[in-house]
Amino acid sequence: MEALEMLAENISVVFVEPETPGNIGFLARAMKNFGLRTLILINPCELEDEAYYQAMHARDIVEGALIYRDLHEMIDSLEPDFLVGTTGVPGGSYNVDRIPLRPSQLADAIRPSSGTFILFGREGDGLSNEEIGLCDMVVSVPTSEEYPIMNITHAAAIIFYELFRDREFRCEGLEEASAMEKSLLLEEMDEILSLIDIPEHKQRVASRVFRNITGRAFITAREAHTLKGVLRRIKNRMKG
Amino acid sequence: MEALEMLAENISVVFVEPETPGNIGFLARAMKNFGLRTLILINPCELEDEAYYQAMHARDIVEGALIYRDLHEMIDSLEPDFLVGTTGVPGGSYNVDRIPLRPSQLADAIRPSSGTFILFGREGDGLSNEEIGLCDMVVSVPTSEEYPIMNITHAAAIIFYELFRDREFRCEGLEEASAMEKSLLLEEMDEILSLIDIPEHKQRVASRVFRNITGRAFITAREAHTLKGVLRRIKNRMKG
Fold first, then answer.
1. Is the ipTM of this complex over 0.90?
2. Which GO terms describe its biological process (chains A, B) (predicted)?
3. CATH class of B2-163
4. Inter-chain touch B154–A153, beta carbons under 8 Å
């Protein structure tokens, strides 16, 4: 978890010439959903109410946004370790051809301790070839060929999700049953199977089916407890 | 790639009581970005211009959306093989607790050949406990604890992305049990439960646990056949 916090601390999100205030808000909200805090706006549109409205509880990120007139001024001032460009047109007509990374590859490549700046381009035209040329890496979300142009903040949410995909779930009381609990279940089931009149090889098949299903079903500790009680009673009734 | 096309064909996206037309459009666009086509709206707000505007080139998906008055009517009419609920609050206060899957786990679990319906809830309140109770599985995007509530269409885009990330499907010759086959299994189980000596409310809990597990475990037709035979013999032995 410490690595994820360091990562969140060291990533800056750069929105280059945003055209609609609402998208600045949507972007800020997606950032905060994944623990990101630093937003940089390059020559943005007016920050109208809509930006704060769509940000919801990420209003603080919009309010604290750093604003620069152009990308060069930002780079000179903040000296990023890595610039990551995003594009919806993989393999387009960039001067320097490069293979865009998938979001998962970006996640593997990023170092939590480096100052990484992720650039999102204008809603209409994306990043220019010159801007892409400044970047150390380019990332693209794999999409349907029929309609590859994503909403910019949807693409951002997917990239943020990938960067923080190893985050733990907080789901108290919903722990998966342990291997021990599951094996106790299977023992009960095997006993039950031994009480019914089927050939041994069919018993083995049935036992295996139970084992496979139990393995696949993400059974919680509480569910395993319920099941074990029921199986015990079935067994007793069959013996009785 | 054929498996991905089959997957896209067999997934339906259900938006339950959407409150703002813009979000219907954003959702349709995200669907089309990943090759999804079937949108179902349950008791939606008026489909104003904003819905079509935000859909951009996915206007056809909004125009072709199926509309139902409530979820039960939709289920009766379309008979989904799998209902997947989405929630931003993992480990809530559901009657029968279950572990929410991560989007990547959902992607691993889904069968391209089954009719899978993914439910997204109201922008403000999400899905109700009753609606979640109807689902075979629940999926949740892991987020920052500080601000876990995502924009609904951002969460949808992340889930769609995971479903169609480039991967091989391992599914040859392993058809999933049909809804009918599974419901026969559950009937056998309920009969068995009625034969053991436990209070009625515990019987109901146990029945629900079996239903949830069966829903989650992607039981093949062959496995269902084995299980049904075994359950029938258990029942007979208990009666005997």
1. no
2. tRNA nucleoside ribose methylation
3. alpha beta
4. yes
